[in-house]
Design brief:
By secondary structure, the protein is an alpha+beta fold. The chain has 31 helices and 16 strands. The chain is 52% helix and 11% strand. The chain is globular.
């Protein structure tokens, strides 16, 4: 079936097309202001007079922009000074009258709303501009796309769907118009996408495979498509930039003159050779392992670690209703969108080339909700096409009033699709990553610590700590595989002696690895340095005196209140049998802020009840004695003051009442003795190991002495 020309009501003039594009863009941008209107009512969301961002990863790119503007950064501080987003941000700060924080806040909305342009351009190629307008309105504010491009969501996500949508437009145009320059344009867009987002390799490969299949099925005798494949295959290669420039230039010169079938096959073969030599499949395989196979890390000593993807919600399976809502706003609109896309691809077979984006979006059912955004623009086009098709079909019976009825029907369809997404936007009131008091702690830490010093904290807080305190971290939102998480998890979840020893070892062996140009496997490096073969025996040595490496820099512990809610997950990364990768018995840890206190009993919820008379906890059918009850209050300086009432010697459970927070903690001995609980919750520290430097109700900072 060949693509048909369409000159119905849905086709408009070029002026009208660009006017609709502008309206769709302004609509997407305006809707994103809703979050600002809500957040402005909370003074704790502001720092230096500007709303803070609402995504942890944004502080990574902000760190790079900060260091570019400063003109320097520390060796091995992982600052992304070479990344496009950091460079773009720094450039905007230099040329515009905006601060770094203002650019970080607003850039996602400005750039993310650009999704309407490729959607409209694809529709323009099909002469279905009204379809494109409906689709652009929907795609610009669709549930999951809005979440990842809203004001304050400062991340590469602001363009990670715009780029592949532009690639799809270029491929569609190349197939329909067969212009000589379009294969090069497609290849350049693929390279720009990869440069912006290193995880783009699988989708780029999927586009190439889709074009190959389309060519074999429909265009086997059309030489132009083999030329397009040759350019696209070169763009898949991981070769250095100068090699890619030379290869694309040579290919352009080669095809400057008319070439025959054999010459096209030679060019395609050379492109495949370049792709194979420079490991084009390696980045694809890396992504497959991380999100589909969910493999944990394994080091040279065959130590098995916990896979971080098991704890990240974005990488987990999601229910169908959530999947549909995130793509289209509701199950009903999603169903109409899918039907519309099938009809669109049947009418314009070139739209089958959008299947890589649809497929990646549908991967969310198994690979995690982050992938749903890729299906958003294609499903939006599907809904737009179905709306136009129904409107044209119905209005065809109205004679001279056909055009009026057509637009009335479109005006009914649009709110149907937009309403559930706007309702989601109104309800999606996400806070900033940190509040002002937490940033104040990090700002004080910046004045105390040197740029070469390390802060030990969980990876969720790595980027914000580096941005505000200008220090180094051991793990962060990008460096958090099981092998690098293990030492930090161990330091936070073990008693203070073992914690201090592991912290010093992790910092020094991390720096040694950087000096050698290596990374990861830090526990394995420690074991080899201490001539240890068994990880359990080596870790047991850390609980006592051990000869530590020479101290090269200071280490600070950043212990935030918000870690309390994820502490069991933090502990999981070191609560693993390193020989087999099997989880050990999960430590017992419960946080309750909805308890009921009576003279005789304390109800913690979930059927857990404390009998105050005998000091026993009822857990279902069991009664377990408490070792102690500790009441913690904060003094005026924010320092915890703990008073303990001992109950049953040797009992397995401990209860902590955090009076100032209105929370009760119930835990076993392992959790009670952990560095995090002792240092932050109870304020108890070994003065030979730690020195408290900052106390706040929201976070505590300790300096490691050894």
């Amino acid at each position: 079936m060949k693509t048909k020309k369409h000159n119905g009501i849905g086709h408009t003039s070029e002026v009208t097309f660009w006017l609709m594009t502008a309206v769709a863009y302004l609509f997407a941008l305006t809707v994103r202001y809703y979050w600002v209107g809500w957040a402005e009512h909370y003074p704790e969301f502001f720092w230096h007079g500007t709303l803070m961002i609402n995504t942890n990863d944004g502080y990574f790119w902000g760190e790079g922009a900060r260091d570019i503007l400063a003109g320097f950064h520390q060796p091995h501080d992982l600052s992304p000074v070479t990344e496009p987003l950091s460079k773009l941000t720094a450039w905007l700060v230099r040329v515009a009258p905006w601060s770094l924080e203002e650019v970080m806040l607003w850039l996602p909305a400005v750039m993310g709303s650009l999704i309407v342009i490729p959607v409209m351009l694809i529709a323009r190629e099909l002469k279905q501009e009204i379809m494109g307008f409906v689709a652009a309105l929907l795609a610009g504010i669709a549930w999951s796309y809005y979440n990842r491009t809203m004001v304050g969501y400062y991340d590469t996500d602001m363009l990670t769907v715009v780029w592949p949508s532009l690639i799809l437009w270029a491929i569609v145009r190349a197939h329909l118009r067969k212009e000589k320059w379009m294969p090069l344009a497609v290849a350049l867009l693929m390279l720009l996408y990869w440069n912006w987002y290193p995880s783009a390799a699988p989708l780029n490969l999927a586009f190439v495979l889709a074009v190959l299949l389309y060519t074999l099925l429909f265009e086997r005798k059309t030489l132009y498509h083999y030329r397009l494949l040759a350019f696209m295959t070169i763009a898949l290669s991981s070769a250095p930039v100068w090699v890619l420039v030379v290869a694309l230039s040579a290919l352009g010169i080669w095809f400057w003159k008319q070439r025959g079938f054999k010459e096209h096959l030679y060019a395609l073969g050379a492109s495949l050779l370049l792709f194979a030599v420079w490991g084009g499949l390696e980045p694809v395989w890396y992504q497959v392992k991380g999100y589909l196979l969910r493999e944990g890390a394994q080091d040279g000593l065959n130590l098995h670690y916990f896979a971080v993807t098991k704890t990240v919600r974005e990488a987990g399976r999601i229910p169908f209703e959530l999947f549909a809502n995130r793509i289209s706003g509701s199950v009903g609109v999603f169903a109409l969108s899918v039907v519309g896309y099938v009809m669109l691809a049947w009418r314009y077979r070139v739209m089958w080339l959008a299947l890589p984006m649809v497929g990646l979006g549908f991967l969310a059912l198994n690979g995690g909700l982050r992938f749903t955004v890729y299906a958003v623009p294609i499903c939006a086009l599907g809904f737009g096409y179905l709306a136009v098709w129904i409107a044209e079909y119905v209005s065809a019976f109205s004679g001279q009033k056909r055009r009026i009825l057509f637009y009335l029907l479109i005006a009914l369809f649009v709110p149907t699709a937009l309403f559930p997404n706007i309702e989601h936007i109104k309800a999606y009131k996400v806070p900033t990553v940190l509040n002002r008091e937490e940033v104040t702690v990090l700002d004080r830490l910046r004045r105390l610590a040197k740029r070469e010093d390390y802060v030990l904290t969980w990876w969720d807080y790595g980027y914000p700590v580096r941005f505000y305190a200008d220090v180094k971290t051991l793990i962060d939102g990008g460096k958090h595989s099981g092998d690098v998480n293990f030492p930090v998890s161990y330091a936070l979840s073990r008693p203070q002696v073992a914690s201090a020893n592991m912290a010093r070892l992790d910092v020094e062996f991390t720096e040694r690895a950087y000096a050698k140009g290596e990374e990861g496997d830090y526990l394995g490096r420690m074991m080899r340095a201490y001539k240890a073969q068994d990880p359990d025996r080596f870790l047991a040595r850390l609980q006592d005196k051990i000869s530590l490496p020479a101290k090269t820099r200071d280490v600070y512990y950043y212990l935030p209140l918000r870690m309390l809610d994820i502490f069991p997950t933090v502990c999981a990364f070191s609560n693993i049998d390193l020989h087999t990768g099997q989880m050990r018995r999960q430590p017992f840890f419960i946080v309750s802020d909805r308890f009921k206190d009576t003279p005789q009993k304390l109800y913690l919820g979930g059927g857990i009840v404390l009998n105050k008379k005998n000091g026993r906890i009822a857990l279902g059918q069991k009664e377990i004695p408490l070792a102690s009850i500790t009441t913690v209050t904060l003094d005026k300086a924010g320092r915890p003051r703990a008073q303990t009432q001992k109950l049953h010697d040797g009992a397995p459970l401990y209860l902590i009442f955090m009076r100032s927070y209105g929370r009760i903690l119930l835990m076993d001995r392992q959790m009670f003795d952990s560095a995090y609980i002792q240092l932050f919750v109870l304020g108890r520290y070994d003065p030979a190991l730690f020195e408290p430097v900052i106390f706040s109700p929201y976070a505590a900072v300790y300096k490691l002495k050894r």
